[in-house]
# Entry
Amino acid sequence: MEALTFPRYSPDDIISYLRSHVLAGAEARNLVKGDVFGNPKLEVLHMIYMRILQKVYGIRLEHFYMMPVNVDIMYPQIFEGFLPVCNLYIHMERLLPVCRINDFQIADVLNPKTKRTARFLSGILNFVNFREFRREVYLELQLNYKSAMEKHQQLETANREAAVKLEKLNTVPVEHQAEVKQLTDNIRELEQLLRQDYRRKQTALQEVISQKKSDIAESTRKLNELKVTMTTLKEEQEQLKSKIVESPEELKNYKELMKETVKKLKKSKQEVIEKYEGYRDLVEVLPSCQLEVQLYQKKMERQGANVERLASVLSEVRNLEDQLESAQIELKKGKTDEMSLKRLVTAKHEKLSTAEIRIKKKREDVEQYKHTVFEYCNRVQEKRGAVYDKVTAIHKEIQQTRFKIQQLNENAEKENMKAKEIYLNLKAGLEKRHDSLIKTAKSYAASREEKIAELKKGLLRVQTPGSSS
# Structure
């Protein structure tokens, strides 16, 4: 199963792909086949792995030299040289199972072997190609989604504006409500009048149509009678022609009489036709008659086309009969050739059967490979969906934290404002207190001086009588 997971690339293909797609600048120019295969250089191989991890996961170079924060280490200076290799192994161990490689070890980083490195690099290149292909599709979908969302927002705004405009248009202002009511009443009255007018005209037209139909029926009846009389007269004429053998004068007179009767009949027929044409012009107003006439015309055209087709088919039949005769002659020659060809065909059928068996085996192998590839793609899609769900959850958490930070900032601003107000109130109270203390001190000092002066006066008074005695 490992051999069917991904195609194995040759060392030359791997080096050319690394130069063109993974590495850049001096790194791509200085890369040689001997640096990776044969006696591989650890620095070059580690650099290739780091560049692949930077491309796939976006890991920066300083992350490989960082100590893990969740582990307490007594002497981190000891791990400074081993840290890049350890971090590289951790990240590669996370990447390679996605590339259908499950036997990666730390020995492949410290002491790599050519066959294993070639297999690892071919699996990684296969995954990178698949990732770039699906990434283009995902970016296209993202762009389409963004454009669709923008269009949706534009349409929503346009819909809201249209709804506002419709509300404005539907709401009749108070000033024009009376005029609108009058107009609606007038429109209803006009509709009723128009309907009555239409019904009246329709009944009149139906009466005229019924009269015209009756006139047409009478004219057709007269035409039929005239046709019957014409046929009877023709029969009588034929009978008379058979009877008349002699008397040419009587024949001439009879012919003249017959000519006069024919002229009269033609005149009457012409009058009937003119009346019929007049009636037909009147009846042409009716759409049903027009439709029937058009149908008859189409039928006549179809019959003419069918006659032409029949003639062409007959000519083709004659040509085909001639071709058949020539083909029968050729068939006799072909039978002799067929016997020789059958022998060749049997031999070719045997070869084809063997080739079909081989093709079936190849198809089965290809279908198995496709099945495995589809399963892998489905798993990748499921993982992608899980990652997408995680990303959406993280985005939601970020939005929530941002909202909380905004709320905390607002609360802090409010508390600052309150503290400022309290500070100002305290300052004003202290200033008032200081003023009152100064006043009390001054008053106390004045009262003290007054008391001292009184005491001095009292002492002077006490001293004066003592001196006098």
The chain has ten helices and no strands. The CA atoms of residues 404 and 410 lie 10 Å apart.
